[in-house]
Amino acid sequence: MKKKKSISYAKWGYIFILPFFITFLIFSLIPLVDTVRYSFYEYYRSGIKEIGPNFIGIANYLSLLKSDMLKYSANTLILWVIGFVPQIVIALVLACWFTDARLKIHGQQFFKVVIYLPNLIMASAFALLFFTMFSTNGPINSILMSLGWVKNPIDFLGSVIGTRSLVGFMNFLMWFGNTTIMLMAAVMGISMDIFEASELDGCNSIKRFFYITLPLIRPILAYTLITSIIGGLQMFDVPQILTNGQGNPDRTSMTLIMFLNSHLKSKNYGMAGALSVYLFIVSGILCMIVYKMTNDTDPDGSKKAAKKKAKEERRRR
């Protein structure tokens, strides 16, 4: 009898994933390597004259440390905190409400759509809308003056608190829906038996939230925090449009990516590359810290108990 030929389909798997790797190589990996390479070079344009690329070592990195980079880093952190803190708090509250079977909330699908809707609006359109609404001659000032609450128009975009609050509020509106949906999915993944057992043991809603819900959705919380940090470091479109690219007032809303964009505008590729590397390193460090803080390697406390037991045994000896 003739033996049947075995057909190997493994090659088709490699063929199907090949387009991804080619695209990644051309559009991501090569530009990334080039960015790091140019960060060690003097490479910019002065008028119509192109200077470089001339190798200058870490001079670009040192120049950035002497510039306003640290100030813009502080601005980015403040704007991120203003947007993220209410975002995660409200998202957690809404996720717990919508997944609580005892509340019997009707029309959940409608509310999910409404909550997620701002996430579908482009950031540029959102920023332009708020710029129009909160300008000196905008509808918000007109309403406040017609109600008699203020006598003169409020310059929302002319004050530090006003501009930062608007940027934070817009980031909150755009992303809290996405965070809520993810946290709802995480809470719904918890077995109902655990909640029922906690009720039988007399556990109230607050204790159930802090001792059951939060620890069990920790991986999703870590993912949310890490993606939010990366997004916060890349904050650009909202403050760029709202302040017309100037970071006003007094550059207090200038973010790191806006600073990077100013170097790209002036064709200073060496400084832009160095700043990109700084952002990459800071993102990596912050994400590692968050991962270490939120990753519980001993959820049941068995490792801690074993260490304690080993310590007691050593003392006895």
Automatic annotation (TrEMBL):
Family as reported in the entry's similarity comment: Belongs to the binding-protein-dependent transport system permease family.
Lineage of source species: Bacteria, Bacillati, Bacillota, Clostridia, Lachnospirales
Subcellular location: Cell membrane
GO cellular component assignments: plasma membrane
TM spans (from-to): 12-33, 77-98, 110-134, 172-195, 216-236, 269-291
Protein name: Lactose transport system permease protein LacF
Domain ABC transmembrane type-1: 73-290
PANTHER family recorded: ABC TRANSPORTER PERMEASE PROTEIN, INNER MEMBRANE ABC TRANSPORTER PERMEASE PROTEIN YCJO
Species of origin: Blautia wexlerae
Gene behind this protein: lacF_8
GO biological process assignments: transmembrane transport
Membrane topology: Multi-pass membrane protein
InterPro entries: ABC_transporter_permease, MetI-like, MetI-like_sf
Keywords: Cell membrane, Membrane, Transmembrane, Transmembrane helix, Transport
